[in-house]
Amino acid sequence: MHEMGVMLNIVDEVDEIARQNQVKRVCRLTLEIGDITGVLPEYMEACWPAIQDQYELFADAELKMVPVRAYGTCQSCGKNFDLVEHDGTCPFCKASRYRVISGDELIIRDIAVE
Q1: Which CA distances in Å does 75 have to 27, 31, 87, 112, 114?
Q2: Looking at the whole model, is its pTM more than 0.85?
Q3: Residue 91: which residues within 8 A CB-CB, separation 6 or more?
Q4: CA angle centred on 18, ends 8 and 38, rounded to 5°
Q5: Are 92 and 81 in contact (CB under 8 A)?
């Protein structure tokens, strides 16, 4: 489960932002997690209580995760399609070469503070 490592990197980044802005408490942390990041939201959620126990900054914070669908543009026909739904194969021309346009990101969307 590499999600704990991912979560710790996010915590470090938020901690730095909090220090720069003299924030003592985070109320909510919202993450955008793409379908093809390799990060499983349920594992991120499972890590959250340990983060809350270890870091006072997050003691009462809510973790919110927003899924981002994975879309690609077919390199053969140029049409966009859902990569997960169609297993990476263009439903229009059946080619399997595509350029990812969304769904591979892991972004801190917002940090709500006291």
Answers
A1: 43, 30, 15, 40, 47
A2: yes
A3: 81
A4: 30
A5: yes
In the DSSP assignment, the letter for residue 57 is G
CB 64 within 8 A of CB 33: no
- Over the stretch 11-35, which tens digit does the pLDDT of each residue have? 999 999 999 999 999 999 999 999 9
Laid out side by side, the sheet with 98-102 consists of: 80-82, 71-74, 98-102
| Beta-sheet strand order (sheet of 62-68) | 62-68, 26-34, 106-113
- Residue 1: pLDDT over 80: no
